[in-house]
Amino acid sequence: MAFERVCAADEVPEDEALGVTLGPLDLAICREGEEFFAVQNLCSHAAVALSEGEVSDCQIECWLHGSRFDLRTGKPTGFPATEPIAVFAAEVREDGVYVDTATTLNGVRPS
Hints:
Blueprint: E1 3-7, E2 16-22, E3 25-32, E4 35-40, E5 54-56, E6 59-61, E7 68-70, E8 76-78, E9 87-93, E10 96-100
Antiparallel strand pairs: 1-10, 2-3, 3-4, 4-9, 5-6, 6-7, 7-8, 9-10
């Protein structure tokens, strides 16, 4: 695993997403309570930034057409999206949020 720091934990508002770029990857860092998640920042349906959408019930919603994705699995939970998004391991350390971009948790290649 190759964890890299992406932001400070307090930069990610609860129930919202923060768009970050880490090397060639655009990620949406999401926070729900004390849990942090990292997913590709691109809707599989319309290729728009997911970080501009809403986060609730461990899902992120695309602002354009309303597709929803499970933050743990990347699977679509609401149409019109039918393809999953990439999910990465995220952990909080004393100095910030770290993401492992070496592999995805769900086997989906980031777009």
